[in-house]
Specification:
The protein is of the alpha/beta class. The chain has 14 helices and 15 strands. It binds zinc ion (2 copies). The site of one zinc ion has 7 residues, from α5.
């Protein structure tokens, strides 16, 4: 028995030495397989026919290792729509294997920097991936034209370099950048149909992110399944109206107790500007409990929190973030992270949630 044990130990040592000696070869083989898998198939190939949401950014301006800047991908059939494009979100789309060449349109809820600061990177990736001959449509309330003009201008030289380097066949010059599709913000109680295509209807409705105006949320309806994306707002009855009976409510949330900790920390550290900012942000967002009230009163099927404030680097903080939610609403909820996927297959009432990353 003792001899057998020594023999096994010897074998393990030999294997470990061989593994170490061959580590580069093994790593290269693994990389080859990974590259092939990622290039040969995409997340779209693995989704059932339906309306699906993948969070390409579940965070806010504050850095959170699990949450990039706000970005919600809504997949309807074969087409991908992106609501807001925060910093890092294009990279999360790639990590989720959601092909940016398939992006049919971008929709902006408002023009706060954290909702647009990933747009340049996403436009570049869509252009490079699709070789599209026409620029990316960017829908948004009045004012979206200035945002799009700014990005187009700042990326102009970079676009020129890429056409010169790869050729116009690979990088068609007409496909770079974006084209704005502004719409007038509808009155409270009214919806503005922003897009209708292949059974999908996207409707914009006004929310309250005062003093930020315009600010809207979007409702997606596709073959009997539905999703509402809140955008940034304080608790809002108009949003609740448009979320009536929705399968999935993707709602922003700020936990005042946890932001209070930041505020007190800034006070103790003698950082008056941070004290002011962490105080001011309380008045134009929704608390997790208020979002649960909306989900309850709208009769939503599932509540997914995104635009999470403050950062929640530890899973145990997610529990504190949700304090009081279970007492408010008995429906299913989760705190979004980069890579959270919710599948809503058509001809079904199923709501399936997964973490892709
Ligand atoms: Zn905002
Ligand atoms: Zn925001």
């Amino acid at each position: 028995m003792k001899r057998f044990g020594l023999g096994m130990l010897g074998l393990l040592v030999v294997l470990a030495v061989m593994g170490y000696a061959l580590r580069k070869t093994i790593t290269l083989r693994l990389m080859e397989r990974l590259v092939e898998r990622n290039m040969a198939s995409s997340l779209l190939d693995e989704l059932p026919d339906g309306l699906h949401v993948a969070l390409c950014g579940a965070g806010s301006p504050l850095p959170d290792p699990k949450r990039s800047g706000p970005c919600t991908a809504v997949i309807a059939g074969e087409r991908v729509y992106i609501v807001d494009v925060g910093a890092g979100s294009s990279r999360v789309l790639s990590r989720m294997r959601l092909p940016q060449g398939k992006i049919a349109a971008v929709l902006l809820t408002h023009f706060h920097s954290d909702h647009i600061d990933g747009l340049g990177e996403l436009l570049m990736q869509r252009w490079a991936n699709a070789g599209s001959a026409s620029p990316t449509p960017v829908h948004g309330p009045t004012g979206v034209g200035a945002v799009v003009d700014g990005f187009n201008l700042s990326y102009r030289d970079s676009q020129r370099y890429r056409v010169a380097h790869h050729g116009a066949d690979t990088m068609p010059p007409g496909g770079a950048g974006a084209v704005a599709h502004p719409f007038a913000v509808p009155a409270v109680g009214e919806g503005r149909i922003v897009l209708e295509r292949d059974g999908l209807t996207i409707t914009a409705f006004v929310v309250d992110h005062s003093p930020v105006r315009p600010a809207v949320g979007y409702r997606f309806d596709f073959r009997g399944r539905s999703v509402v994306v809140s955008g940034d707002t304080k608790k809002n009855t108009n949003l609740q109206r448009f979320a009536a009976g929705v399968d999935l409510l993707v709602h922003e949330a700020l936990n005042p107790q946890l932001v209070g900790l930041l505020n007190q920390g800034a006070e103790r550290a003698g950082r008056p500007r941070l004290v002011k900012i962490t105080h001011d942000i309380l008045d134009y967002h929704t608390t997790p409990v208020e979002a649960a009230e909306i989900a309850r009163d709208a009769g939503a099927g599932y509540l997914l929190y995104n635009h999470i404030v403050p950062p929640l680097p530890l899973s145990s903080m997610e529990e504190i973030f949700l304090d009081g939610v279970a007492e408010t609403w008995s429906g299913p909820v989760s705190v979004g992270r980069d890579g959270t996927l919710v599948r809503l297959p058509v001809d079904s009432e199923a709501i399936e949630v997964d973490e892709l990353l």
